[in-house]
Amino acid sequence: MDSNTPRVSCIAIVDFSEDARWVFVTESVTELLGYEPRDVIGRPALDIVHPDEFPTVRQLHYDTIRQDKAAVIAYLRLKHKDPFKGYLLCAVSRTVVHNVLVGSVSLAVPGAKAFQNASTAQEVVVVTPTAKNFEFRRWGDPSPMPPSPLPNIPALLEPSADNRESSGSPKPISPPVLSFWPLPSQSLRSAFILDRFSIHCPIQYCSNDHLLSTTTVMGRSFFDFVAFRSDEIVRSWIDVIKAWGVNERGQPSDGGFGYGKFYLLPKGRDARNDRLPEATTAGRRREFSATSRSHSSRSQLQTNRSRLHSSPFSNSVTSPDDEVTVDAIFSGHSDGILVILRTTSLSPHA
To answer: Are 170 and 161 in contact (CB under 8 A)?
Structure first.
């Protein structure tokens, strides 16, 4: 591969319209496809799809919305702004988030990274015929990926007596017109883009107010809205996603999907003050296994516990009624970490 080939992935959001108009895109789209974000926002994303693949991709866009899909990938060709670069084979991921599609775009490059992306996706569709080598199998799957329900589309050939050409063969019927009006609303998911370059992961984008108030969360640490009892596990998941989302050059890139379930705290807390320092936490673990405890260790732990309970944002004194159990999809990208949440009735420990 050319050393100048970009190894980045941009986060992109399109609407439910027939044209799939760009709603949001991160700055890595410039290195990837040559467009500035201002060049594409409000314009149809389907305009840069290869003409030979346009009907299939438009149908795919419609089916993704109608079937309320999540964490799915398609391999297709997109036009670079530079006409000399032509159309590039790309991996496009997408998840239905209430009234938009949220996902990413990256160049499709065979190898371990592509395998990781495909093996963690819920579904893979290869639109470009020459990209069949991206159709990976997963353990136990009878086909490359579990199929989605087929859309309820009438047969294109109707062999009835009233619908035959003079030759007697079935007369072709025009494909049904795809109807996008009124625009539907699907699963009440919310999408968040986190700063992957900070240990506190500040929230840089929030797609809607279903779970958290946009005006409240912007710029605050994502962990402020993770219940204290889920703090450690969610931090470990995000560390994994950051490690996955690195290319062969060690640069931030994409790295597949991760899935989890945790307790969300819509009211928020002060995660920086609520969290015990690592050294103190390690000391506490040693205390439990030791036969004797020093007075200084007990005093330090008591001080930290008092601070936790006195913090005005602390979740330590909140009740389970203040928490919401959510399903989460995590994915890492060049410009941030994408987190998609949806409420669930099941406990994370169920």
So the answer is: no
